[in-house]
Amino acid sequence: MDKSKKTVGIAGAGILGRLIAYYCLADGWDVALFDDGEENACQLAGAPGIKGPVKCGSGGGCPSPSYVAAGMLAPYCEMRYDEPMVPKLGRESLDLWSSILETAGKNVYSQRAGSLVVAHPQDKNEFLRLKQMVETCAKEPVMQHVKGAELRALEPEIDSRISEGLYFAVEGQVDSRGMMAALGAYLRAKGAELNFNTKALKIEPGKITTMFGSRAFDWALDCRGMGAKADLKGLRGVRGELIMVHAPDVTLNRPVRLMHPRYPLYVVPRPNHNYVVGATSIENEDLSEISVRGALELLSALYSLHTGFSEARITETATQLRPAFKDNSPRIFHRDGLCRANGLYRHGYLISPKIARLVASFIRDGKPESGYEELFESE
Predict the structure, then answer these.
(1) Residue from 176, 182, 195, 180 nearest 31 by CA
(2) CATH number for the domain including 21?
């Protein structure tokens, strides 16, 4: 490392850790990352050398939820009353994503064609509840209520019983695995030190201790997600289940969310008729394989959205834990020489650019960015 520069050590090389490293490099820091997993451990199903269905989760080789996330950039279509800060963080992150993709992810699949929320007639109350919430909470026009021909122009193939939707033109998605790989390559090319298969055993002010010994830094940053549970009171894991399918008979142009009182489903299109399908948020920390109930609910809702999914092939199932605090809002804990960012819950890709920028600005300037003081807590 360059002894003339200030140094930062980052424990945890998920999407948040990598984006903090991205911004710290831009601010002139010498950066070292440490992660207990393998670099790019989770491969895309159908990639060269990968045959048949892939299973991620316990025993599946995925070191981080960052690899199995759907990558939705949707601050409004998943809005909830109990997460008031998330839309603000997400909206600012949308602009930051444009710059990140331009500099570090030029070849990563991403999309800003908006997202669409729909519901079957019997579930219209859920649909209307979201509409009212957005109208109440959003400070600018972000939603269009589309019906009939307007809806069909956006998504011609969805089930004919669905007659209206909510269209959020500013939203989009990014390929999570492609972005993780691209950021890793970018950071290394810019001089960051990346240490994989290197578990952080202890993180203290200005020091990170791994299985290979202790390293001193001007700042030590903890971005380990669930790996930081022993050090962060109140951090819990929320189980998520996800299925990837290949559906040659289906064409969806943008992420679609199907409202349901029990399992609001999201379907995120990827190139070549691949789709990421998810919904479940289960309040336990079980990392075993996807449950029969979870799979049935996901696939039944998927079929109700488009019957063409009946002949789709399941290429992958995944389970992971989303780190969250009681109020499901992120937190940045700090003291001199130490900063811990955690609790991104379901919104890792949505809000990680802004959280990363806030952390990088804090260690540079010594104070929180104006308007975001409530996210910061002294240890």
Answers:
(1) 195
(2) 3.50.50.60
Instruction: Give tens-digit pLDDT for 241-286.
Output: 889 999 999 999 999 999 877 777 899 999 999 999 987 678 888 8
Is 89 part of any domain?
yes
The contacts of residue 169 (CB under 8 Å, 6+ apart) are: 114, 142, 144
pLDDT digits (tens, 9 = 90+) for 193-249: 999 999 999 999 999 999 999 999 999 999 999 999 999 999 999 988 889 999 999
pLDDT digits (tens, 9 = 90+) for 89-128: 999 999 999 999 999 999 999 999 999 999 999 888 889 9
- Number of domains observed in the structure of the chain: 2
For 90, the 3-state DSSP assignment is helix
My answer on whether 71 and 92 are in the same domain is yes
Average pLDDT over residues 324-343: 95
| 34 and 110 co-located in one domain | no
Q: The tokens of 77 are what?
A: 């279509």
Give the percent of the chain with pLDDT over 90.
71
**The tokens of 161 are what?**
């019983």
User: How is the beta sheet containing 256-258 ordered, strand by strand?
Assistant: 54-56, 313-324, 236-246, 274-278, 265-270, 256-258, 115-118, 164-168, 144-147
Mean pLDDT of 47-56: 40
Residue 224: inside a domain = yes
Helix axes 348-365, 85-104, angle to 10 degrees: 80
- Domain range for 191 is 7-42+176-231+327-378
61 is a domain residue: no
Residue 150: which CATH number?
Answer: 3.30.9.10
Q: Which structure tokens are listed for 375?
A: 């996210």
Number of other CB atoms surrounding residue 242 within 10 Å: 25
* DSSP H or E run through 168: strand 164-168
Residue 60 lies in a domain: no
C-alpha–C-alpha distance, residues 124 and 261, integer Å? 10
Q: Residues 355-375: pLDDT tens digits? A: 999 999 999 999 999 999 999
Do 145 and 246 share a domain, yes or no? Answer: yes
Buried b (16+ CB within 10 A) or exposed e, 78-105: bbeeebebbbbbbbbbbebbeebbeebb
